[in-house]
Structures are given as structure tokens and as C-alpha cells.
Write a structure and sequence with these properties.
With 206 residues, this protein is of the alpha/beta class. It is built from 7 helices and 6 strands. The chain has helices at residues 18-22, 37-50, 69-84, 108-128, 140-144, 150-159, 175-180, and strands at residues 27-31, 55-59, 90-94, 133-137, 165-169, 183-186. This is Cob(I)yrinic acid a,c-diamide adenosyltransferase.
Length: 206
Amino acid sequence: MPQGKVDPANIPDDGLTTRQRRLLPITAVHTGPGKGKSTAAFGMAMRAWNQGMNVGVFQFVKSAKWKVGEESVFRRLGELHEQTGEGGPVQWHKMGEGWSWTKKQGSDEDHARDAADGWAEVKRRLLAEEHDFYVLDEFTYPIKWGWVDIDDVVESLRTRPGRQHVVITGRDADPKLIEVADLVTEMTKIKHPMDVGRKGQKGIEW
């Protein structure tokens, strides 16, 4: 496992000490057609919770009526923190009422408004330093669909105050989002059981 050692030839000339660089905020993007983008982000959020960080999860696409397994776990972790002080506080928010892949409910105007309102709330929280760790789940899609302005997102991420970490998931990440990120991972599908007609399974897809 990497130990965070820096090649002397690659030490940035930024005037910061090693400790100061260790405390810099991270913008991470998990993109690509493969499975596991959100799962990896929630794994990072669990590490953040264990370090006592204030975690905020914002789901931008999955239906508000669809309860994923991670939601139950993180809500319970938030309760555990309230009861015992272990870990950190957790908030879980769903943006919209079902504007998912099929977008069955509401008009495109409704979905666009929900997405814009959701991003406005995240932006407000970033400015207020309300959380230490943000998961913006499936956030690449409202950007791709033109419901959220990519330039506003990039500027807000680039200029956010403090040490707030932000992890963004979803396919087809905008090149500007990739450019502003510190950590970008592309999930590449090699095989998937659904390719041969198998259905999603408990403990795997949800």
C-alpha cells in the first residue's frame, strides 16, 4: 500500500510543509462505465466518519423513494454518533422525487429545477463549511444534462474555504470537472452479469 512518499523530483514549489500538504482538501471524481463508483465513494465516506468528520451525502439522481443499503448504514452511523460520540455526524439528502434514468415523474423543467436547487444547497454548505466530507452521488448527470452549470461548479470547488473534501460520482464526467479534481478514477467494465441477462442481486446492486 502506498505510504504517501513523494519523489523529491516531484515536490511542488508551493512553500508548504509536508504537514500542510497533508491537510489540503481533496476533490475526487469517480467516473467511467464500470460498476463501483458510488460504492467507492461511500467507502471513503466511512473512513471519514471513522475519523470523526462531519459527512454529508447528496444523491442527485437516484429516486427519493429508493433506499440504498448505504443509506441505512450511514443513518445508523449518524445515530451512533449522536448516542455515543463515536465517529462523526451524518446527513443524507436526496435531490428530487425520482428523476432517475427513466425520469418518469415530473417534467424536464421540474427535474432541472430540483437539480439546480440541490446544487445551490450544496454550494451554500460549502461556503459555510458545514461538512468536512461531501459525497455528491451521480452529480455528473445533471451537469451533463445542462441542469447545473459546470463553470459554477468548478469555481465553487476551486475556491471553497477550509479543508472540505468532495467526492463526485457518475459516468461521463465533464472535462472541466476532471481538470479541477485532485483525484480521478475511471471505472472500466470488463464483465458484468447483466450483460448475459442476469438481474441485480441483494448485497451486490443494493
